[in-house]
TrEMBL record:
Keywords: ATP-binding, Nucleotide-binding, Transport. Residues 7-231 form the ABC transporter domain. It comes from Knoellia koreensis. Belongs to the ABC transporter superfamily. It holds the Pfam family ABC_tran. PROSITE patterns: ABC_TRANSPORTER_1, ABC_TRANSPORTER_2. This is ABC transporter ATP-binding protein. GO terms for molecular function: ATP binding; ATP hydrolysis activity. SUPFAM superfamilies: P-loop containing nucleoside triphosphate hydrolases (SSF52540).
Length: 311
């Protein structure tokens, strides 16, 4: 196991009767990265995270977290998690709720205000939890996860149920956690979310990891979309270029697979061949397209989220 692995899982499996919730998951999360765990509802994300935290016993396979077995007290002391919303008292303030949690977790009370500040709730710290918006409640959950000033933060679907503004705030908060040098694991069924805050992503479907890579690796190389006239001359010119991997007409334009460093060469060659280039743009594949290619999900799969880009 590499020494910079904060989490490592080998063939991790969980069965509930005949249901195989997690099926032979291999996973490595490196120190300091924001790692996305992306998959549709029921894919096995929560079960995997619960096994890593020692909340659920694996049926088979092995895992280590911060170099310790799941559930090890030292590893738990260095880990903050938001798996199921922690139970807060509605009639107590956000601050008092956290003070109680801090006492229970043997964390100094002096950690409470920094945790509230980290989630931008310091100004409402004295208000009753019951009066908080859903976004504020979720942020208080993250503050609870930060009480121990953890090296590793595990967040399971932290934006569930939030409105677009709440989602944006939560994403900014998660990005900040990564910038502070913490290792962050974010589980989500939202492509945009994972794409926005994570460097590496594991896609999970039906309990299996179907792919792991950086967001860029998963998206692959962007194609170049060229609008040019006359198009037959453009097509012939592009096909003759050694660094162009493929060219195909698509509607009114040509889709060219060519390394990004040759973009300027493509334009120059076309112009030299007497072609008028009227449009040129890179078309990035979204993680969503990659996911639909990799899994059994259909592009129209939908559930009740506020965003269009989801699994
Ligand atoms: N305690 C349990 N008993 C029986 N089946 C379970 C249990 N926990 C999870 N499962 C099943 O395991 C599968 C994976 O569930 P899990 O909650 O890990 O998925 P998920 O990817 O986190 O999805 P969601 O986003 O909906 O929570 C599902 O089919 C679920 O019904």
């Amino acid at each position: 196991m590499s020494t910079d692995a904060v989490i490592s899982a080998e063939a991790l499996t969980k069965r509930y009767g005949s249901v195989v919730a997690v099926d032979g998951v291999d996973l490595t999360v490196r120190r300091g990265e924001a790692f996305g765990f992306l998959g549709p509802n029921g894919a096995g994300k929560t079960t995997t995270l619960r096994m890593l935290l020692g909340l659920v016993r694996p049926s088979s396979g092995r895992a280590s977290i911060l170099g310790r077995p799941p559930g090890d007290p030292d590893a738990l002391r260095r880990t903050g998690s938001l798996i199921e919303g922690p139970g807060f008292y509605p009639y107590l303030s956000g601050r008092t709720n956290l003070e109680l949690m801090a006492r229970y977790a043997a964390v100094p009370a002096s950690r409470v205000m920094p945790a509230l500040e980290a989630v931008d709730l310091a100004g409402r710290a004295g208000d009753r939890f019951g009066s908080y918006s859903l976004g504020m409640k979720q942020r208080l959950g993250v503050a609870a996860a930060l009480l121990k000033d953890p090296e590793l933060v595990i967040l399971d679907e932290p934006t569930n149920g939030l409105d677009p503004q709440g989602m944006r705030d939560m994403r900014a908060l998660i990005a900040d956690l990564g910038d502070q040098g913490r290792t962050v694991i974010l589980s989500s069924h939202l492509m945009q979310e994972v794409q926005a805050v994570c460097q590496r992503v594991a896609v999970i479907d039906h309990g299996h990891i179907v792919t792991v890579g950086t967001v860029e690796e998963l998206r692959g190389q962007p194609d170049l979309e060229v609008r040019a006239t006359p198009s037959d001359t453009a097509l012939a010119t592009l096909r003759a270029l050694s660094y162009v991997e493929s060219v195909r007409p698509d509607g009114g334009h040509l889709v060219v697979t060519v390394p990004t460093r040759h973009t300027a060469d493509v334009t120059r060659e076309l112009v030299a061949a007497g072609v008028a280039v009227t449009g040129l743009r890179r078309t990035e594949r979204q993680l969503e397209d990659v996911f639909f290619d990799l899994t059994s999900q259909s592009g129209s799969a939908s559930d009740a989220t506020q965003e269009p880009s989801h699994v």
